[in-house]
Specification:
This protein is of the alpha+beta class and 128 residues long. It is built from 4 helices and 9 strands, in the order E-E-E-H-E-E-E-E-E-H-H-E-H.
């Protein structure tokens, strides 16, 4: 299982890549895609949608179950990875290369609630 050091993570199993210009990309972690199994559908939040940290904003469905996407931070959706609508299984093949949505966090939004790779792995260890 992979946990790239350059990403941040949430307790709800999303990864977040924060760019130099403050735009963030989000997707589900390797752990989450492994737990879900074969992903068959992704319902991403809509462009322009307001996100509230920790609140559901989308859905990922697999042959086993469905799982809500929870907003990692408060902000506004900038873009959605349209390719996942046709090929949701890309997440299984490359979870960290398959972002689901990008967003711009509110300027006042603290990123303290995000975990680094070590913190995320510790969280997983506590739940297993």
């Amino acid at each position: 299982m992979k946990f790239p050091d350059h990403l941040k993570y949430t307790a709800e199993h999303l990864w977040v890549q924060i760019t130099e210009v403050g735009l963030c990309y989000a997707g589900i972690t390797d752990y989450a895609q492994d737990l879900l199994g074969d992903i068959v559908y992704v319902e991403a939040p809509h462009k322009g949608q307001k996100l509230e940290a920790g609140k559901p904003c989308g859905l990922v469905e697999s042959v086993k179950t469905g799982s809500d996407l929870h907003a990692p931070l408060t902000g506004t959706v900038e873009a959605v990875n349209e390719a996942l609508g046709q090929q949701p299984e890309r997440i299984n093949d490359d979870p960290y290369g398959s972002w689901i949505f990008s967003f711009r966090p509110e300027p006042s939004e603290a990123q303290d609630g995000l975990l680094d790779a070590d913190g995320y792995q510790e969280l997983l260890g506590e739940h297993q």
